[in-house]
């Protein structure tokens, strides 16, 4: 390899776009608890099917699915109030039990050592993301994009297209990391190749996806292979 791995024969991506919940941080169990409490508040049970359907969603999409399951009429849906209710419960749990996904910290360090710019790309709202960045490390990322800062969150492609704009690279020169069907669908819609590390719900295979069981042992060769540089 040459001193700059981005010029090597097996070309690396020019930017790496990281999902947060379930990919870098093990937050999905905590979100599930909050969603269970919200469903109970509406008088229903968060079934496994409903829980899977809300995983990786933006706040609006997740709340909408629970509202619909509880048959709450549109006139009775208090998105702002219920989102604030959810945020307070989630932040309280994060303060007590926020954990890294296996291999995530080493994977971030690997990409940083290769001098590849990184962007955090999450459906989580800015208020919650800013708290999580205290654990992730703000200085690791050249930019962050949240679900409440784009026209529509994942599975729509807007959030990934915005991330590419912020890092100043064509979307096709980036590589994403995701864990959920919703996040994976967003990468596919945006036209960015992705390494998928499923956390709880299986992800449908696509030609642009490379699957791993964990981020542990990730290498630059793995990034090059997933990016299609070989």
Automatic annotation (TrEMBL):
GO molecular function: hydrolase activity
Keywords: Hydrolase
Keyword Hydrolase among UniProt keywords: yes
UniProt xrefs under Pfam families: Hydrolase (PF00702)
This protein's name: HAD family hydrolase
Signal peptide stretch: none
Coiled-coil portions: none
NCBIfam families in alphabetical order: HAD-SF-IA-v3
UniProt source species: Gordonia phthalatica
Alphabetical list of Gene3D superfamilies matching this protein: HAD superfamily/HAD-like, Putative phosphatase, domain 2
């Amino acid at each position: 390899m040459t001193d700059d791995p981005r010029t090597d024969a097996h070309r690396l991506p020019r930017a790496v776009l990281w999902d947060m919940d379930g990919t870098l941080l093990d937050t999905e169990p905590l979100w599930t608890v909050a969603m269970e409490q919200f469903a109970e508040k509406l008088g229903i049970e968060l079934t496994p099917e409903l829980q899977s359907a809300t995983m990786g969603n933006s706040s609006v999409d997740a709340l909408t699915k629970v509202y619909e399951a509880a048959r709450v009429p549109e006139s009775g849906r208090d998105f702002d109030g219920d989102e604030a209710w959810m945020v307070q419960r989630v932040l309280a749990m994060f303060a007590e039990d926020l954990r890294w996904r296996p291999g995530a910290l080493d994977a971030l360090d690997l990409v940083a050592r290769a001098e590849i710019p990184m962007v955090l790309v999450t459906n989580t709202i800015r208020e919650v993301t800013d708290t999580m960045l205290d654990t992730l490390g703000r200085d690791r990322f050249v930019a962050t994009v949240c679900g409440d800062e784009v026209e529509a969150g994942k599975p729509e492609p807007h959030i990934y297209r915005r991330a590419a704009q912020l890092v100043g690279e064509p979307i096709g020169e980036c590589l994403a990391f995701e864990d959920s069907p919703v996040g994976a669908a967003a990468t596919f819609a945006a036209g960015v190749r992705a390494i998928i590390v499923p956390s709880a719900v299986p992800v449908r295979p696509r030609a642009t996806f490379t699957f791993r069981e964990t981020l542990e042992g990730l290498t630059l060769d793995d990034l090059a292979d997933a990016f299609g540089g070989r």
